[in-house]
Structure to design on (95 residues):
């Protein structure tokens, strides 16, 4: 006798007494920015650059709904570009 997968989950949650975790806790752009910083921390600048390119595409394309955080998002993008540039040019920091 097979147990329906959804029934098994809801039954397990009921046994634990816990509500299911929310499916999406952060925006995709936030997750990409976090991945960018992780790549920088590991010194993988090629991956960091590609993630920035993707993030820039996401933030600069015209969205269907007005984004009230657009300025903050663009400031984060500029700061990320600056971080990557400084990591690639450490000699400038020393001057």
């Amino acid at each position: 006798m097979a147990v329906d997968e959804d029934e098994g989950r809801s039954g397990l949650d009921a046994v634990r007494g816990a509500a299911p975790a929310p499916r999406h806790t952060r925006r995709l752009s936030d997750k990409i920015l976090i991945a960018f910083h992780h790549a920088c921390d590991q010194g993988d600048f090629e991956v960091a650059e590609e993630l920035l390119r993707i993030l820039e595409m996401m933030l600069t394309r015209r969205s269907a709904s007005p984004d009230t955080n657009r300025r903050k998002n663009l400031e984060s993008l500029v700061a990320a570009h600056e971080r990557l540039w400084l990591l690639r040019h450490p000699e400038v920091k020393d001057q």
About this structure: The mean pLDDT is 81. Residues 27-94 form one domain. Helices lie at 5-16, 28-41, 45-60, 70-88, 90-94. Residues 68 and 74 are 12 Å apart (CA to CA).
